[in-house]
Design brief:
Elements: H1 2-20, H2 23-35, E1 38-39, H3 40-44, H4 51-63, E2 67-72, E3 75-80, H5 82-112
Antiparallel strand pairs: 1-3, 2-3
Helix pairs in contact: 1-5, 2-4
Length: about 110
């Protein structure tokens, strides 16, 4: 039962890891994290890609649940979805604890052996 719950969390987190695996998307997330909500115009400024490419990447991040947008007048403003990021962070924390426990068991085995 425990393995299937862990598998379910992995399946839920997989789109996030896939989305963040692209350097352009990771850069967009980083900017939204440090600068707060930004319009597509602002996100395109300084980017080495077209507005269409930025929009494509934002849509992929949105599909993964990492960002969302809202209309503000004529502009669409993008912002992070912190809840989704927290969910994935908790999953990574769980994996880290499992690795720590496995390494402790290995160290104990080597020291006792």
């Amino acid at each position: 039962m425990r393995a299937s719950a862990s598998q379910a969390r992995l399946i839920e987190a997989a789109p996030v890891f896939a989305a963040l695996g692209d350097p352009a998307r990771l850069t967009l997330v980083s900017r939204l994290c440090s600068e707060g909500p930004l319009s597509i115009v602002r996100l395109t400024e300084g980017a080495q890609m077209s507005r269409q490419a930025v929009t494509k990447h934002l849509n992929a991040l949105s599909d993964a649940g990492l960002v969302h947008s809202e209309r503000s007048g004529r502009e669409r403003v993008w912002q992070l979805r912190p809840r989704r990021i927290d969910e994935v962070r908790r999953y990574l924390d769980q994996i880290s604890l499992q690795w720590d426990a496995a390494l402790d068991r290995l160290r104990d085995l080597v020291e006792d052996g």
